Amino acid sequence: MTIAPELGKDGCVASDMSANPGQFAGPSSAARIGRWIIPAIPFGWTWIPDFGIQKKEEGVVPSNVYLREDQLLAGNQLELYIQAQIAIMKRTFLDPVIAGPAPLTFPGAAEAALLMLKHKSMHQVTVFQVQHYVRSGNWIGIATLTTLESELLKVRADFDQFMKLLRIEPQASA
After folding, report:
1. pTM, full prediction
2. What is the CATH number for 137?
3. Number of folded domains in the chain?
4. Helix-strand-coil split of the chain, %, nearest 5
5. Which of 166, 165, 144 lies closest to 155, judged by CA?
6. pLDDT below 70 — which residues of the chain?
7. Domain that holds residue 144
């Protein structure tokens, strides 16, 4: 990912969002998935509308970053939401290894947390997921990197940089 040498006051270079990796977009032209604002994607990754980004390489299972949203049904605690997600993971995957949650900071969020999950796929390949949970009011944003364990070190820096650029749209006042 390239950081533009001259950033505007908003932290972005004004340009149209495209599938060109490393290209920055201004707030009005940045790609969006719900309240997620995506001003740029890392080099070597492809934009997939309504999903997120994907990195494909010859002979390797693609790595993905999936952006999704959810709502808290009761209360305003991210911890309870994550505990429910962990319970689902334990029922879904055979012998999952789960680390976290650990607190994170995220611009515009009331709270955020990191969770990591390692499990075997149906083909007995070890899959690794890095999940960022972000809460703003009752809105929950989930950004999930899914990759093979063998690819994690190759794609983790791109994911971390992508997460630093992501923003959430402020909730409109009622």
Report:
1. 0.80
2. 3.40.1000.10
3. 1
4. 20, 40, 40
5. 144
6. 1-29, 172-174
7. 51-151
